[in-house]
Design a protein that fits this description.
This protein has 125 residues and is α+β, with helices and mostly antiparallel strands. It contains 4 helices and 6 strands, in the order αββββαββαα. The longest helix has 15 residues.
Length: 125
């Protein structure tokens, strides 16, 4: 797999991928911090668009192997505010993680949160 592009480019690619999923919408519940939701539920935290100090994403990974793989990324950790107990992982974008892998994790998070009808639409497309 090719290495990740610059963190902000990686963030933009992950954002575009997430918004391409059925029913996905972007919202800004905390000033500049962006989230992508499906069915009014967050499936990816993107943080602030111009964040160059600590760019990263947060995804919900229920699959034990995938969750462990994400936590193996240097600097990754269970998400704060108690979200880590529910499978949420914060992954820094500075670690060189390939964008394709980040998008795979975003899709898994989406599949965990989205209603079955939208997952069926994704699978059919």
């Amino acid at each position: 797999m090719p290495a990740s592009p610059a963190p902000l480019t990686a963030r933009a690619k992950v954002r575009d991928f997430a918004l391409g999923l059925p029913g996905a919408v972007e919202e800004f519940p905390w000033e500049d911090d962006a989230v992508i939701k499906v069915n009014k539920k967050i499936f990816v935290f993107l943080g602030a668009e111009g964040n160059t100090e600590s760019p990263g994403i947060g995804v919900k990974l229920k699959d034990e192997e995938t969750h462990g793989h994400a936590l193996a990324v240097p600097g990754a950790a269970p998400s704060g505010y108690g979200l880590g107990r529910s499978g949420w992982v914060s992954v820094p974008l500075t670690a060189g993680t390939p964008v394709d892998l980040l998008c795979d994790w975003v899709e898994e998070s989406y599949r965990t949160i989205a209603p079955k009808r939208l997952i069926a639409q994704l699978d059919a497309g």
